Amino acid sequence: LDDPDNDVRRAAVEALAWQGAPECVEPLVVRPWDDDPTVNGARLEALASLATRCGWDAVQAHADAMPEGPAADIVSAALAARSGATSALLAALRDGDEALRHGAGAMLAALPEAAANCAEAIASVLQDNPGVDSQRGAVAALGSAGEDGVELAAELLASDDWQHRCCGAMALAAAGPAAAEALRCTEAFRA
Question: pTM for this one?
Answer without folding.
Answer: 0.88
